[in-house]
Design goal:
Largest sheet: 4 strands, mixed
Strand order of the largest sheet: 1-4-2-3
Radius of gyration: 16 Å
Structural class: alpha+beta
Strand content: 15-25%
Distance between the termini: 21 Å
Order of helices and strands: HEHEHEEH
């Protein structure tokens, strides 16, 4: 259900984005347990805000530690810059930005979509290959 609410709508990759480390960790535990996903298939990308720039390495390490992954699993982070209209203030501050967990595996995506369809009692053609 987490994937249904927060996941990508891709046919060939499982992609889950959130700002809550417990939720990201739980979803990754699900992938490890139910689909035997090895660390080598996982990619982690951080989306940071302008005021995170000086703490980028610390924040990246926070997410890697939360997922118990090595730096080899980290992709280049994106840092959102302040717009000229923002007055360098932002609302809804997220202390660690967001983390995107990606696993490229069509069979896992199709299994998850199938479970969602079974649970919810419907079928969507766009999810089927």
């Amino acid at each position: 259900m987490l994937f249904w609410a927060e996941g990508s709508r891709s046919r060939n990759k499982v992609e889950f984005v959130n700002s809550d480390p417990a939720m990201i960790s739980f979803f990754f535990r699900f992938l490890r347990t139910c689909f035997d996903v090895p660390d080598s298939k996982v990619r982690v990308t951080c989306n940071l805000f302008a005021d995170h720039a000086e703490r980028q390495e610390e924040i990246e390490q926070f997410w890697l530690d939360s997922l118990q992954l090595t730096r080899a699993r980290l992709c280049k982070s994106s840092v959102n810059r302040f717009s000229k209209y923002s007055k360098k203030k932002r609302r809804n501050k997220l202390p660690y930005g967001t983390c995107r967990l990606t696993v490229y595996d069509t069979s896992i995506v199709q299994s998850i979509y199938g479970a969602i369809h079974e649970f919810a009692g419907f079928e969507r053609e766009e999810c089927l290959m």
